[in-house]
Design brief:
Length: about 425
């Protein structure tokens, strides 16, 4: 008797089989890398040698380069595309930096090599592997033995989780559709809409990434482990040096301690200091992505970090925010061509006529549902600014903001809209 197989069922089974192969293959690859890296960490502890240190971070660095930059290799025919089909491991950008910092701290004698269990827990910690923060090993390992439940700390952690969900579901997810709509048709929308989208993407990225950090740090706090803050009102920065002291603090401090200072930092000639800054931010750009747009983003930030102390105008809060907003455009654009098209049209075609205003607003407010989205979004932004203002002045209105965060998120939050942006890095 001939059996009949439903094509949809068959297709689903094949997809699950392929995905399971990638999943288990990824687990085996990741576990193997961690075990090899741990063995090398123990070797560093007993033989503090720069050559051994370099060898110890080489496997993680090679895995990161070959998985993240495989499109580059295939584009320039350095490898046969059919033999280089590697799925990017989840969180590889973050656990690679963790492994490097751990090995360097062991080499410097600041910490002993942890046990295999503690090492694997540190590198693959579930709250941080997706989008950070990049917690230092000498902050994490000592807390494992002393961590215990504390009611006050748990309350603080729960508030951070609520605030993080508020940022993600109400602000980031609300801003996303407007931004996506503009980037899908850069050449066909009014220049005013490009400006509106640039502002909203700056809002979306901050709410999305800082929201994830709040949730991650809140979970850790409930478990009795304190994680340093990853954001400190970055859009109120005065200059780009101040901005990087407030934005993605765990990454900027990592780059400072493991790239900028080892290169010589500021304890050298003016030209050498300029080179050190540029190399640091070039690495930052390449860590985030492989396209020329990320290279442009990194180089631009490096130049502005170097110039900010020298030019008073660049230390204005308003000017800093506007320049940061402009530089998020290559961060969001699909490539450098889209970035240049976006930036050129912002200025070349800009006008504030009634027609331009009407056409731009119609992109964002098409019907009553979109109006509700827009009102909810800007209400969320206002509440978040209010919270940051009171927090900056040490005013504790935790209960009030908890009520506002919860009620606004339940009433207007956009669920299931997207993954966290930095999960892509």
């Amino acid at each position: 008797m001939r059996s009949v197989i439903n094509p949809k069922v068959y297709s689903s089974c094949v997809k699950h089989h392929i995905l399971s192969k990638y999943f288990y293959g990824g687990v085996i690859l990741f576990s193997t890398e961690l075990i090899i890296s741990w063995c090398l960490a123990k070797l560093i502890e007993h033989h503090k040698n720069k050559f051994i240190l370099a060898i110890s971070i080489l496997p993680s660095l090679l895995l990161f380069v070959f998985t993240k930059y495989q499109n580059f290799f295939t584009t320039f025919s350095l490898f046969n595309p059919s033999t280089l089909k590697i799925i990017l491991p989840l969180g590889i950008s973050f656990f690679t930096l963790k492994i490097i910092s751990c090995h360097v701290e062991i080499y410097r004698g600041n910490i002993q090599a942890p046990s295999l269990c503690d090492y694997m827990l540190y590198v693959s910690l579930f709250t941080q592997i997706l989008s950070g923060p990049i917690m230092r090993v000498n902050d994490f390992i000592p807390q494992l033995t002393s961590a215990k439940f504390n009611a006050e700390q748990a309350r603080s952690g729960a508030f951070m989780i609520i605030m993080g969900l508020f940022k993600k579901l109400l602000i980031a997810n609300m801003a996303m559709p407007f931004v996506d709509k503009v980037h899908e048709n850069i050449s066909g929308v009014p220049a005013l809409a490009l400006w509106m989208s640039a502002f909203l993407y700056a809002v979306e990225l901050y709410a999305d990434f800082s929201g994830y950090s709040d949730i991650s740090n809140g979970i850790m706090k409930i478990m009795g482990i304190n994680v340093p803050a990853n954001f400190n009102s970055p859009y109120f920065a005065s200059g780009f040096r101040d901005f990087w002291n407030r934005w993605h603090i765990s990454l900027s401090s990592w780059l400072r301690d493991y790239v900028y200072i080892p290169l010589g930092g500021s304890r050298c000639s003016e030209f050498r200091r300029f080179v050190n800054v540029m190399i640091t931010f070039l690495i930052s750009g390449l860590w985030h992505g492989t396209g020329l747009n990320f290279l442009f983003w990194g180089i631009s930030h490096g130049l502005l970090v170097y110039l900010s102390p020298k030019i008073k105008l660049l230390r204005s809060q308003l000017v800093t925010f506007i320049l940061v907003m402009f530089l998020w455009i290559p961060f969001r654009a699909v490539n450098m061509t889209s970035t240049l098209n976006y930036l050129v049209r912002m200025f070349r075609d800009f006008n504030i006529s009634y027609g331009a205003i009407n056409s731009s607003l119609r992109l964002f407010v098409l019907n009553s549902t979109s109006i509700n989205y827009a009102l909810s979004l800007f209400t969320g932004i206002f509440v978040l600014i209010l919270h940051d203002f009171f927090a900056k002045h040490d005013k504790d209105y935790g209960a009030v903001f908890t009520f506002m965060f919860v009620s606004l998120t339940i009433l207007f939050g956009r669920l299931g809209a997207s993954a966290f942006i930095y999960a892509g890095f």
